[in-house]
Amino acid sequence: MIIIKNGALVTPQGLRRADLAMEGDKIVRIAAAIEPGEDDTVQDATDCWVFPGFIDGHTHMQCWTGMDWTADSFETGTRAAVCGGTTTIVDYATADRGVTMPDALVEWHHRADGTCTANYAFHMALAEWNERNRADLSAMREAGVSSFKTYFAYDHLRLDDAETLEVLEELKRVGGILCVHCENGTLVNALQKRVFEQGIHGPEGHALSRPDVCEGEAVSRLLYLAHLAGDAPVNVVHLSTKLGLEAIRAAKARGQKNIYVETCPQYLMLDDTCYLEQGEDGFAGAKYVMSPPLRHAGDRAALREALVAGEIDTIATDHCSFNLHGQKDRGRDDFRAIPNGGPGVEHRPVAIATSFEGQLGPEDLCRLMSENPARVFGMYPRKGCLAEGADADVCVWDPQARWTIRAATQHQAVDYTPLEGFEAHGRAKAVFVNGVLAARDGEPTGAQPGRYVPR
């Protein structure tokens, strides 16, 4: 057995002083004191918090986005995740137009199986709606896929409103949840052209062409469609604006219950002044080109207030990494050609713990980054809680650690981090995946114990 001793276990009821024993891939015992036998291994957790492993419910590893392949593979991305305390990711497999969902799932398994340090599950994104996809929804559920995604933006991915309504109705029938990228793609296309023709070609044009109205309108439209589908369950991903938040509040006020809200560290910590960053080559603002874009300081403040008030359910990363040099800089003369996305899977837990120090306690961090993702995406109570019989995914967290985030020392396979120079408070001291020590003090052990998680 592996015994974690002298720590404070993080539970929904508060911190509990207790020892925890893991055997194989399960938590087998929690007690006030567990005495080790001669064959047992002890992990000292004095002055540490013991979390159920963190879950990142929104990643894009080893993914072709229509412009380029992401910099992180499943191997490098999950290794980086575990170094930061994340033991499970839920990645977006995508059935492009002309590709069936079963074939897409096979392809994503081919990319991930046998390479992962963290556990991995898959959402399934639909780029078209037809009778074949309707029929395959049940097969996806049987394969352990309980969450799906559609887009209101990107011409090669988006569905129209009538198609989205049918997807919502079918998912309600088969017991799935729909995650939606909420930006008005028609407006984005027109505004991109308008901004470019005004002579704005740099990274700042990205934010100017995707204003908050594009998100607010799309969030409102999604929630009306979900209402029309009989309060079908929806997950609003990467919420970035006060307008979007107000649309969610309005839907809840009129009685909708099955609304889940995700945001990301970048929308809680950064703002659109980042696009003016020059750097050595005058193009550093491209690091922050992601969709939705970074927003005004007022949006950031509204989201932070909502997070502390309990209005946001989960914090994910939307990790979609591209190198600044050799990938993002291809759009030097046209912001529309900058690959959209940024890294974050390694630093999410410490970024939130530090940024909200004094506002969110360990129980809140657990709820936002472990328990709620497990509940929303069909993994609870196997994951997302410390309990006898639960999976042995455990993060021993040292809240006293102090260090600085640097691209030079990160494990994400990308040449920058949006949080360069951030003074971090806390660190994953020991991270266990399926009962195997996968990272210690922010460094990988070399083990690859990650498994597919059917949900």
TrEMBL record:
GO cellular component, one term: cytosol
Keyword tags: Hydrolase, Metal-binding
Keyword Metal-binding: yes
InterPro entries (UniProt xref): Amidohydro-rel (IPR006680), Hydantoinase/dihydroPyrase (IPR011778), Metal-dep_hydrolase_composite (IPR011059), Metal_Hydrolase (IPR032466), Metallo-dep_Hydrolases_sf (IPR050378)
E.C. number(s) listed in UniProt: 3.5.2.2
Cofactor requirement: Zn(2+)
SUPFAM superfamilies the record matches: Composite domain of metallo-dependent hydrolases (SSF51338), Metallo-dependent hydrolases (SSF51556)
Residue positions, PTM N6-carboxylysine: K149
UniProt domain Amidohydrolase-related: residue ranges: 49-436
PTM annotation, UniProt: Carbamylation allows a single lysine to coordinate two divalent metal cations.
Matches recorded under PANTHER family: COLLAPSIN RESPONSE MEDIATOR PROTEIN, HYDRANTOINASE/DIHYDROPYRIMIDINASE FAMILY MEMBER
Protein name: Dihydropyrimidinase
Originating organism: Collinsella aerofaciens (strain ATCC 25986 / DSM 3979 / JCM 10188 / KCTC 3647 / NCTC 11838 / VPI 1003)
